[in-house]
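Input.
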Amino acid sequence: MASHIIDFLLIENNFGTPEMRAVWSEHNRLTKQVDVEVEVELALAEGELGVIPADAAQTIAAKADASALNVEKIAQDAVRMKHSLMPTITAIQKQCGDAGEYIHYGVTTQDIVDTATVLQLQQAFAIVERDTQLMAVELKRLAKKYQHRPMTGCTRGMQALPTTFGFKLAVWLDEFVRHLERLKEIKARVLVGNVNGAIGTYASFGELGPQIERLTLDKLGLATPNIVWQSARDRFSEYASVVVLISGKIGNELYNLMRTEINEVEEPFSAGKIGSTTMPHKRNPAAFEGLASLTAPIFKSASLIHESMKVEYERDAMSWRAEWIALPEVNIYLSAQLQNALGILRGMSVNEKQMLANLELQNGLLLSEKVMFEIGKRMGKQTAHHLVYECSMKAFEQSRHFKEVLLEDPVLSAQVTAQELDAWLNPVNYLGCAPQKVDEVIRYADNSGLLPA
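Output.
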């Protein structure tokens, strides 16, 4: 019976995807360990190099079968032996008969577990890379679609200046292109196996040790390390750091834009979707909440992976086991986030009418900077700031339109006309280079070679 929320049948897909859970399942973990240890490709590599008899290597490759192992029996033996891998080795030995004497030849447990974990991570990496790319594709589409759609930009939680929704999306697009660049850059550093014996010196292999490692890892499709990394856990830590960056902030931002009083976007809605068990009118931001809620667990699990970098001497199991907990979690949580985010972007409603209404929410005060700079051309910027500030505070406190207050000021009314104010207070006339920057980001994304043509 499941005892972790990742695997609860009723809500598991809120916290992960079937695809990513399968990667980090116990079955796949065991399969990868058996593959590394036996079928792929240690025994075959040792057989090719004459370290073990070639016929024994062929027998091991033919008979070792992770799917035929009795997991319950292995688990019982693990309790008795108090060792996480030895029962598996014993079970495979029995499968292989006399050839089983050559199983696990020259390697240590961590060689097998680490390299198997990297094989799992290789699968997870491909899923994360694929979905991160799909996110960039969707953000590119939406950034272009809403390139010229004015909306209110906020700083410190308050309305600040006009921007466009496309500009906001282009900021996220640029970020996701950087995520793709990071993934591409770290792949060669992360997907590296480890087959070098008890403390990494190849002592049990002799002079053939580096060749055995290289040949085994070549067969597995993994890179070969310059030197043992049993005591250097930065590879997993670097990957976790990139996962944290991908997890990001989009969910929380969209959650705020859907607030009743803002109402600029709405997550995909389908007939029958229930917002509340007691308030029938509620259309809650459940998808946005789900997206945002997994960022904190990813941050915490990544922190646990960073803790595993503190290794005692050449190897210990204290720090190591933290990775067993946290590495599956960060990948499973991120898979849910990316799939959820893709569904949101593909079906999200954008309330363009409300975006325009929110631009006028402060009765023209949103354009105080524009007014200040225009008047500053005639009176000096600092003088203009003082005058416009006084009018801004008066308009705010008296709930009056900014234009009206500006025109009744004797100094300002001598410097500006009503027609000029109408132009200056039009949000569309103060978007800066927002639309042009959207094009620039899209060009960069297209030229990066990281998005499909």
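The two ends are 46 Å apart (CA to CA).
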